[in-house]
Design a protein that fits this description.
This protein is mainly β. The protein has a single domain (2-26, 47-112), classed as C2 domain (Immunoglobulin-like, Sandwich), CATH 2.60.40. Helix content is 0%, strand content 46%. It contains no helices and seven strands. A four-stranded antiparallel β-sheet has the order 4-3-6-7, with no helix packed on it. A three-stranded antiparallel β-sheet has the order 1-2-5, with no helix packed on it. It is elongated and about 60 Å long.
């Protein structure tokens, strides 16, 4: 998995942030993903994968998206920058609802700039 903050140098307070996550699955010689091996589950179960962005300092969930993980996926997560400028630390979680030990977490930092100034007509400069 790789991730990238789009337009990272232009993040302004209170504006939207886009985190692009690129997922690639090691298929280990398989051609497709089948149901989960869960003999005690009452019916056939497909695995579920989730991408979550959180702020551990404030215990806030900023973005969550269920993602299909076949061979390759490119996913965008949108969330809002905080109202105040400065460096903000976030955590990206990649979690599975079917397998233990697969969850991953990655820390990243966003340098939030002051909001753009408004001109006389109310448009951002």
């Amino acid at each position: 998995m790789t991730y990238e903050l789009l337009d990272a140098e232009n993040v302004r307070a209170g504006e939207d942030i886009t985190l692009q996550v690129n997922l690639e699955r090691d298929m280990e010689g398989r051609t497709e993903v089948g149901p989960v091996d869960a003999p005690r589950y009452p019916k056939s179960k497909e695995e579920g994968w989730w991408l979550v962005v959180g702020d551990t300092k404030t215990n806030q969930l900023l973005a969550i998206k269920r993602v299909p993980l076949q061979r390759k996926s490119k996913v965008k997560l949108d969330f809002t920058a905080p109202a105040e400028a400065g460096k903000k630390s976030y955590t990206l979680y990649f979690m599975c609802d079917s397998y233990l030990g697969c969850d991953q977490e990655y820390s990243f930092t966003v340098d939030v700039q002051e909001p753009a100034a408004m001109d006389e007509d109310g448009a951002r400069e």
